[in-house]
């Protein structure tokens, strides 16, 4: 049975670039795959035409495996799943909903299935239902999050999933983190935030600049009162929003309306004060714009050094 994601996907390095709505397109995904990891095109907020075009574009840009991320709360999820099954990327990641009913379609199309899960119960369920690997994502991550930390998930998910690789996500940004995850028994890591400042990432330059300025304590979680927590940078939008949630005077519908379109506003239009700059907690490592290849090679070099030195630790 495969323990590492490299074996499942036939890739060089155990690093996946997480799907990022309004951010991860064919360019970024192909750059990560060409650098030895596996990139993912995001479908969040997109039309079926967009998804088809990006998959075709990525196939032009790389002959390496890449994936597509489907948010299962999207209104057009069924149409998107059909397009993915026709276009056949190497794998899909599925989050924000029950992925199991979609397994037969992807299996029939020969597409590997990697659900994104936030707790032990769902990890066991998807592993038993025939997933090829899973991503366990801690609340340090950028974007939609659960309540458990990456360490709590590594501690509790990895030992109970013994038939498929467990890819850890949330807070990874360097080679020490990758080495630690592998030592804990993970089969790889998924990073989102670290790739936001990649040269090949098409996110608006204002958002890159704000991320490079940001430090470890600069994120906030919106939506805790709405049942859909989202981590992003503190700014006018997110701080006001959380204040309104805590005051409890603004109706839920009004809050949902206020949040709609804010990811796109930041990532595409570059309004980093009124938009939601989704990002995780490991921010001090984002120091400059760098090619994906450099990000990945540096992480691999540091992970190898860390693992070599690990045997010298005496306890
Ligand atoms: C800007 C942004 C957008 C994201 N959008 C999605 C998404 O559409 N679907 C999804 O499953 N995860 C999404 N994520 C989560 C990432 O795929 C990944 O799991 C996460 O970024 C890992 O944690 P990190 O940010 O600490 O690296 C998003 C993350 C960021 C930063």
TrEMBL record:
It comes from the Bacteria. Gene3D superfamilies: Aldolase class I. SUPFAM superfamilies: Inosine monophosphate dehydrogenase (IMPDH). Keywords: Flavoprotein, FMN, Monooxygenase, Oxidoreductase. InterPro entries: Aldolase_TIM (IPR013785), NMO (IPR004136). One of its GO terms (molecular function) is nitronate monooxygenase activity. Nitronate monooxygenase that uses molecular oxygen to catalyze the oxidative denitrification of alkyl nitronates. Acts on propionate 3-nitronate (P3N), the presumed physiological substrate. Probably functions in the detoxification of P3N, a metabolic poison produced by plants and fungi as a defense mechanism. This is Probable nitronate monooxygenase. It comes from Megamonas hypermegale.
